[in-house]
Write a structure and sequence with these properties.
The protein is an alpha/beta fold. It contains 8 helices and 10 strands. It has a single domain (8-244), classed as 3-Layer(aba) Sandwich (Carbamate kinase).
Length: 249
């Protein structure tokens, strides 16, 4: 069996990744498949923490755009991430993992409060740690939460599992069919060109703390396991020079 390329990873899952082919909500077979991959990745020797979004249930920025108070909308979105975290917790436990869910907003009946030292201890004991409710603050995305938690717990890499997107491109490939995919991308170029890796706050946080990011397609075969094993897939964002993927150059 392969070994993990990292001691500790943080996996960012979008809420949309849990929908499968549904228009909204959680697709149970997709959730089960993700949980099995995470468990297999952990068996390679990695300590695994996860931040999950809530866009499959409620997206605060969308609600704010149609007139809802932005802070209220964002708090509602945080509740969506808690629902997703609990669903993923259940699927992971059925797959054989030991799981702890920590929430950035107080909800003691279903999740621990977020406490950094406790989260690190759970990881050291081989438990999967789910971080729910983003950062606990409005106006902050779950991408920012993922970057922040990764830095706080000392992850060696941030794994960004995208839905139907196999990396970072020069432009949106759905709009510009000739757009090329980056194999490696520098932090500076990603920020200066406003490439859609993650929001600029999250990306700046990763750059300041020299935290590499792997952007890959969740739907690719065994993508989570392969990312944890350190395979060359998707786009690696870091302090290196920018290199285009050879199959698109």
């Amino acid at each position: 069996m392969e070994r993990s390329a990292y001691q500790r990873v943080l996996l960012k899952l979008s809420g949309e990744a849990l929908m499968g082919d549904l228009p909204y909500g959680i697709h149970e077979p997709t959730l089960t498949a993700i949980a099995r991959q995470i468990t297999r990745g952990q068996q390679l020797g990695a300590e695994v923490a996860i931040v999950v979004g809530g866009g499959n249930i409620f997206r605060g920025s969308t609600a704010a755009a149609v007139g809802m108070d932005r802070a209220t909308a964002d708090y509602a979105g945080m509740l969506g991430t808690i629902i997703n975290a609990l669903a993923l917790q259940d699927a992971l436990e059925k797959a054989g993992a030991v799981v702890r869910t920590q929430s950035a907003i107080s909800i003691p009946q279903v999740a621990e409060p977020y406490i950094r030292r406790r989260a690190i201890r759970h990881l050291e004991k081989g438990r999967v740690v789910l971080f729910a409710a983003g950062t606990g603050n409005p106006y902050m995305t779950t991408d920012t939460a993922a970057a922040l938690r990764a830095v706080e717990v000392g992850a060696q890499v941030l794994l960004m599992a995208k839905n139907r997107v196999d990396g970072v491109y020069e432009a949106d490939p759905r709009v510009v069919p000739t757009a090329r995919r980056y194999r490696r991308l520098s932090f500076i170029e990603a920020l200066s060109n406003r490439l859609e890796v993650m929001d600029s706050t999250a990306l700046s946080l990763c750059m300041e703390n020299r935290l590499p990011i792997v952007v890959f397609d969740l739907r690719a075969p065994d993508s989570i396991v392969r990312a944890i094993a350190g395979e060359d897939l998707g786009t690696l964002v870091g302090e290196h020079e920018t290199v285009l993927a050879p199959d698109t150059a």
